[in-house]
Design a protein that fits this description.
- This protein is α+β, with helices and mostly antiparallel strands and 225 residues long.
- It folds into 2 domains: 99 residues, Jelly Rolls (Sandwich); 67 residues.
- It has a 4-stranded antiparallel β-sheet. A 4-stranded antiparallel β-sheet has the order 2-7-4-5, with no helix packed on it.
- One of its GO terms (cellular component) is Golgi apparatus.
- This is Transmembrane emp24 domain-containing protein 7.
- It is a single-pass type I membrane protein.
Length: 225
């Protein structure tokens, strides 16, 4: 049986550790387990509902934020399978609500823009169902986590925080861009209006000054004796 040389042994070892490192990185990246993250358009006088099947005892969190449109507000309503209202807010810009499912079934949450007559909205929501499974399950373990495993858990939690911060700042950037574009449009319209008013006033002044220097014919009437 041929024996591997030194270079081949180092290459095999590097490949083995590379595979382990790749598997470790895949474990560290937080996955979208039980979470729905959607950004959608909500027209004026419209209502959009979403449904989620949840088992009893599951902890859930609903977060939403209006990114663009009008006063950046929307109505939100959450109901259990029996139609009981768990959460209801009117004209909210953003909010977060956490609850534990009391029964099995389909839960419904709706966003309404029915109070707006001509302004559509862009709404972002994140609906998390359950908690992320542990990175290293404790079942069937007879020893504590190793130093590398503990470091992996810390990095995993840090990556989750980074994802949350990235989502937060991405929403703030989108909202700020929308406000800036809206302000730019208003400034452009105001500038055009000022230009038109200035043009009308200038033409009026020209005609007014011209009337001051125009020759006026006077008529003299003599009264006979």
């Amino acid at each position: 049986m041929p024996r591997l040389g030194s270079a081949h042994r180092w290459a095999a070892a590097a490949g083995h550790w590379g595979c382990r490192l790749l598997a470790l990185l895949l474990l560290l990246v937080p996955g979208p387990c039980g979470a729905s993250e959607i950004t959608f358009e909500l027209p004026d006088n419209a209502k959009q509902c979403f449904y989620e099947d949840i088992t009893q005892g599951t902890k859930c969190t609903l977060e939403f934020q209006v990114i663009t449109g009008g006063h950046y507000d929307v109505d939100c309503r959450l109901e259990d399978p029996d139609g009981n209202v768990l959460y209801k807010e009117m004209k909210k810009q953003y909010d977060s609500f956490t609850f534990t499912a009391s029964k099995n079934g389909t839960y419904k949450f709706c966003f309404s823009n029915e109070f707006s007559t001509f302004t559509h909205k862009t709404v972002y929501f994140d609906f998390q169902v359950g908690e992320d499974p542990p990175l290293f399950p404790s079942e069937n373990r007879v020893s504590a986590l190793t130093q590398m495993e503990s470091a992996c858990v810390s990095i995993h939690e840090a990556l989750k925080s980074v994802i949350d911060y990235q989502t937060h700042f991405r929403l703030r950037e989108a909202q700020g861009r929308s406000r800036a574009e809206d302000l730019n449009t208003r400034v452009a319209y105001w500038s055009v209006g000022e230009a038109l008013i200035l043009l009308v006033v200038s033409i009026g002044q020209v005609f007014l000054l011209k009337s001051f220097f125009s020759d006026k014919r006077t008529t003299t009437t003599r009264v006979g004796s």
